[in-house]
Amino acid sequence: MEGGNQYKKGLWTEEEDKILIDYVKMHGKGQWNRVAKKTGLKRCGKSCRLRWMNYLSPSVKQGSFTEEEEDLIIRLHNLLGNRWSLIAGRVPGRTDNQVKNYWNTHLCKKLGIKKQSRRVGVSAPTKSRAVKVSEPIIDSSSSPSSGATNIINEVNEGTQKAVEASDTQEVVIDEDYVNSFWASDREFLELSSPSLLESLDGYSLDLVWNGL
DNA sequence: AAGCCCCGCAACCGCAGGGGA
DNA sequence: GTCCCCTGCGGTTGCGGGGCT
């Protein structure tokens, strides 16, 4: 692994942040492994990248999630599963880490989802390019936001159709269902985020199907 | 006031994929 | 074709703060 103990771990200090920001200003993003060499920062490349992508980048939106964002995430998660980067890419200003944390801490609880995900091809635990689909049981009685209520109903109904888990927990997504879900959601998505609609229109569902 | 517990979030880890040599 | 480096992804960990007893 990178570095052994030559690199520092843990929370970043303001000073470290400043060094990293200065580096990006001068050299641009990328080549993260060279940051330590060029700046003397005792952080590995991965750590630098993560810090920039998730916190320091000006495109990252800080602060709590809005109800609109929340609804969008719920819908996208229903459609895409735990593909946080895809979801985050469609929620402006949010990172995959933010979305993932928000889902795991707030939405799972809020939607009453038992935190148990299903992995396709369970025999290969870390080969997780495969789609994971959350437990399709959502308790609509757990006082969701008003905007989320209908979504939860859709999710409950939809995941029944979209996800057929076999005894081996393999997941099959019903393409017809997704297409109908998708078609019915155009208006919502247009309202939520024009760029979202554009992105997803261009997003090949092959990624979903073939990932299985 | 002090100790304990729980929760949220930042960061780490392990792995896969892509591209260049 | 293979190796190496870099980047990106998703799951997990662990620290810190706030609430509770």
Which helices and strands occur, and which strands form pairs?
Blueprint: H1 14-27, H2 33-39, H3 45-56, H4 67-80, H5 84-88, H6 96-111, E1 117-119, E2 132-134, H7 146-162, E3 163-165, E4 171-173, H8 175-184, H9 186-192, H10 194-202, H11 206-210
Antiparallel strand pairs: 1-2, 3-4
Helix pairs in contact: 4-7, 9-10
The protein binds a DNA duplex (21 and 21 nucleotides) through residues 1, 9-12, 30-33, 45-47, 49-51, 53-55, 82-85, 96-98, 100-102, 104-106, 117, 125-129, 132.
Defining key terms:
212 residues; 4 strands; DNA-binding; disordered C terminus; 11 helices; 6% strand; mainly alpha; transcription cis-regulatory region binding
Describe the structure.
This protein is mainly α. Helix content is about 55%, strand content about 5%. The protein is built from eleven helices and four strands. It has helices spanning about 15-25, 35-40, 45-55, 65-80, 85-90, 95-110, 145-160, 175-185, 185-190, 195-200, 205-210, and strands spanning about 115-120, 130-135, 165, 170-175. Strands 1-2 form a two-stranded antiparallel ribbon. Strand 3 and strand 4 form a beta hairpin. The chain is elongated and about 45 Å long.
Q: Which strand order does the major sheet show?
A: 1-2
Distance from first to last alpha carbon: 30 Å
**What composes the largest sheet?**
2 strands, antiparallel
The count of DSSP E runs of length 2 or more, i.e. the number of strands, is 4
| Coarse shape | elongated
Helix content: 40-55%
Low-confidence stretches: 116-145, 158-212
Mean pLDDT: 65
| Rg from alpha-carbon coordinates | 19 Å
Q: What is the string of helix and strand elements?
A: HHHHHHEEHEEHHHH
What is the helix tally? 11
Which structural class do the helices and strands define? mainly alpha
What fraction strand? 5-15%
